[in-house]
Design goal:
Layout: H1 2-8, E1 14-19, H2 25-36, E2 40-45, E3 48-53, E4 56-60, H3 61-70, H4 82-91, E5 94-98, H5 114-126, E6 131-136, H6 140-147, H7 149-159, E7 164-168
Parallel strand pairs: 1-6, 1-7, 4-5, 5-6
Antiparallel strand pairs: 2-3
Helix pairs in contact: 1-2, 5-7, 6-7
Bound molecules: adenosine-5'-triphosphate and magnesium ion.
The site of adenosine-5'-triphosphate has 11 residues, from helix 2.
Length: about 180
């Protein structure tokens, strides 16, 4: 909570939380999104200054992957494309990615989830310089076995760029009391 607080105040550029299910990662990130939507930034265009609300995008990776999949094939009525989604992800002031690596996608002949690995790579590569909050259940070894050694390393490297990492430990609050 302390780290997320520092992030909201602009004292941390980016955070990566790694930890078991039910430890409160998404809960904290949702709180951060709600807080940050109330912040503003100065924006200058053609010599004019504007004060605008900052843009915050919170995405759950498994849902994002499904949305991107649904843009394939015949044209959608709403005109949504993979390129438009990736463009929005790149442009927002704050990107919050919940459940990195949480999707289940089809494995390639080598047993790696290369399609979703490529999408992760693209998103993380584009966001390297920006402010972001990322969380995941997986450790580095699992990320590499999911996407392949080389692609896994590239993903982890970009995920961690300018970010402070924190390992979240604690009970699974969803199952407290379960015998
Ligand atoms: N420290 C806490 N005290 C009380 N309730 C908590 C705490 N942490 C989480 N919870 C509650 O437990 C539930 C699960 O939390 P959350 O969804 O944030 O977990 P998570 O770490 O994102 O899990 P997952 O990795 O499975 O997505 C939520 O209802 C949340 O409000
Ligand atoms: Mg979560």
């Amino acid at each position: 909570m302390k780290l997320v607080h520092q992030f909201i105040q602009g004292k941390q550029k980016s955070l990566v939380f790694q930890g078991a299910p039910g430890t409160g990662k998404s809960h904290l990130f949702r709180c951060a999104a709600r807080e940050m939507k109330q912040q503003t930034i100065e924006y200058e265009e053609n010599g004019k200054k504007w004060t605008v609300p900052i843009t915050v995008l919170l995405l759950k990776i498994p849902e994002l992957m499904k949305t991107i999949q649904r843009t394939f094939g015949s044209g959608r009525k709403d005109g949504l494309t993979e390129a438009k989604i990736l463009d929005a992800i790149t442009k927002v002031d704050v990107l919050i990615l919940d459940e990195i690596g949480g999707e289940r996608s089809k494995s390639d002949p080598n047993g790696f989830e290369s399609w979703s690995g490529d999408i992760h790579y693209q998103i993380l590569d584009h966001r390297q310089g920006g402010r972001k909050l990322y969380n995941l259940n997986y450790d580095s070894k699992s990320v590499k076995s999911k996407y392949g050694e080389v692609q896994g390393k590239r993903i982890l490297s970009r995920m961690m760029f300018e970010a402070k990492h924190h390992h979240v430990v604690g009970p699974d609050h969803r199952i407290i009391g379960l015998k």
